[in-house]
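PROTOCOL LOG
Step 1. Enter all chains and additional molecules of the complex.
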Amino acid sequence: MELYQMTAWELAGLLHSGEVSAREVVAACYERIDAVEGDLKAFLTLTPEAALSQAGSIDERRKAGEPLPAVAGIPIAQKDLFCTAGVRTTCASKVLQYFVPPYDATVISRCRDAGMIMLGKTNMDEFAMGSSTENSAFQVTANPWDLKRVPGGSSGGSAAAVASGEAITSLGTDTGGSIRQPSSLCGLVGLKPTYGRVSRYGVVAYASSLDQVGPICKDVRDTAMVLGVIAGKDPMDATSADIPVPDYVGTLGRDISGMRGGIAHELLYGEGIDPQVRATIEQAVKQLEALGVQFDDVSMPHAEYSLPVYYIIAPAECSSNLARYDGVRYGHRTERETTDIYDLFAKSRAEGFGPEVRLRIIKGTYVLSAGYYDAYYSKALKVRSLIKMDFDRAFEKYDFLICPTSPTVAFEIGEKADDPLAMKLADICTIPVNLAGIPAVNVPCGFVDGLPVGMQLMGAPFTEDTLLQVAYAYEQSTDWHTRRPAL
Ligand code: GLN
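Step 2. Run joint prediction.
Step 3. Record the structure below.
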């Protein structure tokens, strides 16, 4: 097996025993990038010099006998909305095309402190708004399983990079599904942590009450390893929770028999779920039953309101967060002649933001305006609470809930670009989770027409360890996670 095909934990073993060096692993990833990036277009920026020099210093420290974290020397691809000191951070937007942050996001510094080596910054939907990575201002990323199809989004670059072997691990962000849905479409494990589990400091904001950072990896063990690196209280983010971080890798392998699972009825049998995807999830439920999990059907009566609620709250928050890109303090400023400061704002923003971003800002300012605030925004907040209460009730009785992650397998590039509603339906199963602030993980569970299908396991706040334990037990009893695209 080539080095780039291995998982992080397999490589960690080889690095630890001295059979391979971090420089060799990093070089293998860049060779793979040279070979396939022309077709995939997963990266917006590559940082080979910094990566190879960091790998060299990890190798020296290891040779000198210094005890290093398990992930030291493991390459990682970072979504291009994490601030990286000295390295361009574009958010796939013309507004930030030349933005070089003066500081690192906490997740970036935690990865580096653990010895993980950043290969570069990955493509995404502009400001994380989208489900296909087609909304990038710069390039369209392809799905390694079928280059005519999308990798999902908005963290599509991170997912495509890992699925193709360009990178061993990656981070994404998830506001309405952007870690889990691309993981599902690319056959990977992707975990959206509980709101507050991971610091958002230095993460370009989309919708601050929904955004979370999480890993996209080849298997459950890798996901557990990387989550352990980034999770935990950060004094720089007041919304990060001061709750101890469990040993996620240590809980893998524990028996799951006797656990209780709930089938999220509306999210499996509701409209829009492809029948073959549904059948694949039903098969996964059977497999979990064989491992000793007891399942019941659980109704989520308010789940059907998730999309309208999300498409009020997320635009409202984005319209506020994106007000800072005014062409004055930083980011794109128009070079055309302007008449006054408002004209400067308007021209800079119209040139810098793509159509989807502009649409959401307009919607967000509308639902927050004096005349419509009560009718839309405050009503959406109330329904958000009802959606959360559906989950609270379910978790009184069940250890986890299950449904598909994506209602369909990967769709073709361009297929949904002109149909905004169809595109938004791609997140129908993932959005309720962000509204409730709970953790959820995508786990590969089969193929339809040669394309990966993923199941979503959802849990009560701060039960990432339980979700990973269930995911691991399932994964170890199947071989979906060992399949790689023939690229
Ligand atoms: N597709 C959803 C949106 O466009 C979710 C995106 C995300 O999770 N960042 O808002």
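Step 4. Note key features.
The longest strand covers residues 440-448.
The chain has a mean pLDDT of 97.
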